[in-house]
Specification:
The chain is of the alpha/beta class and about 260 residues long. The chain is built from nine helices and nine strands. It has a single domain, classed as Phosphatidylinositol (PI) phosphodiesterase (TIM Barrel), CATH 3.20.20.
C-alpha cells in the first residue's frame, strides 16, 4: 500500500519512517532491523540512543536490558539490569537478537557510530530519540548531539534529534545548536508549544491520536513540522496525511510503501 503526499522541498526528511529500524520484522534497534527496512524501500529510520557507563552511545529503547537481550544469562544473578550502568565492553557481548527469533541469534547491540556510518554510506535519514538513563538527561543530550555532529560532518542531511525529556533536548541545544531537534509528546500538556519553540525545535512528534486540525495549525503557525508515532493502521495514516502532517513513524513497514523522495 502506498500513501503519499506531494514532495516538499523545504523539509528534507521522507514522510515514512521505520520505527526502531524495522523493529517488528527484525530485532528492534539493531543493524538487522535497519537492513530489513531498507530492503522494503525505507530511507528514514527512527532509533533510540543512550550511553554506556563510560559514555559510549549505543542503541537500546528500554532503561533495562531484560526485554531485548540475554543479559539475565550473560551477566549472571546479582548484577544490575540497568543498561547504562555497564561498560560498552560488556554490552557489546550481549545477544540482542534471540528474543526476537532464532534466525537473529547473536545479533549484537550496535553502537550509534555503526548505525550512523551505515546511514551515511547509504544516504539514509535518521530520527534519533535521545533515551537517557535516569539522572543523565542533560549529559546524554550533549553527548549524543556531539557525536551526531561529528558523524554527519560534511555528509548531507543531519539526523533529527528528538526526546520526551526537556533537559536532554536542552543538552543537545547547548552542545550543537545547529542540529535539528524535535519535542516528543505522549500528551499535549500545557505549554508544549512554547517549550518546543523555546528549545529551538523544528518539529513536534506526538502520539498519532493527538493530532487534529486545530493543533496542527498551531504547530504550523509556530513554524513547526508535525510527525506521529506509531501509526500501523491504514485509515489513521490517511487521516494524518489529509491533515497535512509531515512524518509518519510506523512498525508496519510491510504494509506501507514509502514515497520516493
Amino acid at each position: 500500500m502506498k500513501l503519499m503526499r506531494p514532495h516538499d522541498p523545504f523539509w528534507p526528511y521522507p514522510q515514512w519512517i521505520a520505527h526502531r529500524g524495522a523493529g517488528k520484522l527484525a530485532p528492534e534497534n539493531t543493524l538487522a532491523a535497519f537492513r530489513a527496512g531498507a530492503a522494503l524501500g525505507y530511507r528514514m529510520f527512527e532509533c533510540d540512543v543512550k550511553l554506556s557507563a563510560e559514555g559510549v552511545p549505543f542503541l537500546l529503547h528500554d532503561d533495562t536490558l531484560a526485554r531485548t537481550t540475554n543479559a539475565h544469562v550473560a551477566l549472571g544473578a546479582g548484577l544490575s539490569d540497568v543498561a547504562g550502568e555497564h561498560p560498552w565492553g560488556t554490552l557489546a557481548l550481549l545477544d540482542a537478537g534471540s528474543w526476537h527469533s532464532r534466525s537473529f541469534a547473536g545479533e549484537p547491540l550496535p553502537t550509534f557510530e555503526a548505525i550512523a556510518r551505515y546511514c551515511v554510506h547509504n544516504e539514509f535519514f535518521l530520527n534519533i530519540e535521545i533515551k537517557p538513563t535516569p539522572g543523565t538527561e542533560y549529559h546524554t543530550g550533549q553527548v549524543v548531539a556531539r557525536h551526531a555532529a561529528r558523524l554527519w560532518h560534511g555528509a548531507g542531511t543531519p539526523p533529527l534529534l528528538s526526546s520526551f525529556d526537556l533537559s536532554a533536548l536542552d543538552g543537545a541545544l547547548q552542545a550543537q545548536p545547529d542540529l535539528p531537534r524535535a519535542l516528543l509528546l505522549e500528551t499535549l500538556w500545557d505549554g508544549w508549544l512554547d517549550a518546543a519553540v523555546r528549545l529551538g525545535c523544528v518539529a513536534v512528534v506526538c502520539d498519532h491520536v493527538l493530532w487534529d486540525a486545530s493543533n496542527v495549525a498551531q504547530a504550523r503557525s509556530a513554524g513547526l513540522r508535525t510527525l506521529s508515532y506509531t501509526v500501523n493502521d491504514e485509515t489513521e495514516a490517511q487521516r494524518l496525511i489529509t491533515l497535512g502532517t509531515d512524518g509518519i513513524i510506523t512498525d508496519r513497514v510491510d504494509l506501507f510503501s514509502p514515497s520516493n523522495q
